[in-house]
Here is the input.
Amino acid sequence: MKSFAEFPENYELIDAGGGRKLERWGSVTTIRPEHQAYFGAVLSRKEWSNLADWEFIPKTEGSLQGNWKKLNQQAPEEWLFSSANLVFNLKITNNKHLGLFPEQQINWEFLSNNLSDTKRFLNAFAYTGAASLFGRKTGAEVIHCDSVKTMLDWGRQNQEASNLDGIKWVHEDALKFIQREVKRGNKYDIIQLDPPAWGLGAKGEKWKLEELLGTLIGEAIQILSKSGVLILNTYSPKVDIAFIQKITKELAIPNKQIENSELWFKTTSGKELYYGIVTRIYK
Ligand SMILES: C[S@@+](CC[C@H](N)C(=O)[O-])C[C@H]1O[C@@H](n2cnc3c(N)ncnc32)[C@H](O)[C@@H]1O
Here is the structure.
C-alpha cells in the first residue's frame, strides 16, 4: 500500500528530480540531495536557484556530510519554523538534515488523533522531538529517548519554543531502555520507533538496523498496553515491506494486526517521492 503524507503547515516540497529536492521551510528554501529523485525535475535549474536560499553540497556523492552553499546572501543559518501551533528550531548543520522530517506528518496526525491526557507515549530514536511535541500537545505523558545528547538538547529547545513542558528526556540506547522497561513492567499506549539505518548507542556502540529490527520490535511489543499501537518508521535500502513481513511472521504477530505502507510525498510540481516504510502494529 502507498500512503501519501500531507505537507505540514508552512512546509512545501516544491519540486524534485536530478537527484535533488527543493523544499520550503517557512521563509527559507533549500536544495538537498535526494537519491530517490532519480527522475527529471519539472522546474529548471535556474528556477531552483532563484527560489533557494541554501544548497547542500555533499563531500562525495551520497555522503551525509558536506557543506551548505549560500544562494541568497540574506539567508539565515538558523530560523524558527511554526507548524500546527508548534515551533521548531531549524538550522543548517554539517549534514544535510535541518532538524525536522516533514514526511512524519502522517505519524503526527495519528498521534494527535489517538493520544490524550490519559495516555502514555514512548518516542524512541526521537531526534529533535517533533513527535514528542505532537504527543505532549494532546496532554499525554511523553517519554523521549535518544542516544545523542545534542538531540535531547535540541528537543528541549523545541519544547520551550512551543510553550510546552513535562516531556521526560531519556539519554540512552533505545533498545536498552525498552529492555529495562520490560523488566520494570511499564506499559505504553503508543510507541514510535524511528531507528536510523545505522545506529549508535549512548556509549557509541554500533548496530545495523536489519540485524536488530526483530529484537527491537519483539521487545517493544512487550511494553505495549492492551490495545496499544507500535509505529515503526524505516528508511533503509536493506529493509522493505517483505523484510518487515518476514520479521513479524517470525515474531508470530498475526497479519490482521499489522499495517505496512510505503510513505510518499507528492511535490507541488506533481512528482512523487518515496520516504521509506511506515508500519503500525496493533496489539
Ligand atoms: C532518523 S532520526 C529520527 C527522526 C525523528 N523520529 C523525527 O521524525 O523527527 C534517528 C535518531 O535516532 C538516534 N539514535 C541513533 N542510534 C540510537 C540508539 N541506539 N538509541 C537511541 N537513539 C538512537 C539519532 O540520534 C537520531 O536522533
Summary: The two ends are 21 Å apart (CA to CA). The chain has two domains: 7-84, 101-282.
